[in-house]
Amino acid sequence: MEVSRRNFLRTSLGGTAAGTALGSLAALGANLAPATARAQELRIRDAKTTPGVCPYCAVGCGTVVHAAGGKLLNIEGDVRSPVNQGNLCPKGAAIFQLHENKNRATKVLHRAPGAHAWEEWDLERAMNRVAELVKKTRDETFVEKSKDNKTLNHTLGIFSLGGATMDNEWNHVQQKLMRGLGVVAIENQARI
Ligand code: SF4
Description:
Blueprint: H1 5-27, H2 33-43, E1 48-53, E2 62-68, E3 71-77, H3 96-99, E4 108-110, E5 119-121, H4 123-141, E6 142-145, E7 151-162, H5 168-181, E8 183-188
Parallel strand pairs: 7-8
Antiparallel strand pairs: 1-2, 2-3, 4-5, 6-7
Bound molecules: iron/sulfur cluster (SF4).
């Protein structure tokens, strides 16, 4: 829908009025929680329930996944999980958007040095390019012996930084690969 100035003002004022009405209800002491819970209950009433695990970090919080008609409807914390007892951190609370998110990038984009535009690459090509650059850097920077003839067998030319979305298994394999290459600078952003 095209948003004209008039439409924008009308929608904003309508939204403000609705927000004000809800705010007033809450200010008068009305408890809106049951209505919200009821709406959620209706949405997932006939859904199939499957237990899951949050994929984002090694804490491994339990989730409950609701789906119906082959469509994902909701993901929430599992109260039966001894790990999180129904709670999810902000990242975990957003895992629904891993599936339902039209803004999620699903293609590899490459911007060549000095270029202004992004180019779409297929995954195979991108993986080969990464491997090629890692090999080249490793070969150029690998040091077998120190100046005083101590064995080093390392490279200081590569740094590995993991993220919170890497699970235990991935971290295990990443660590093996990096150590195998002689990388010593290995770090992870998620230090829980
Ligand atoms: S990302 Fe958050 S919700 Fe997911 S497992 Fe880790 S702590 Fe739990």
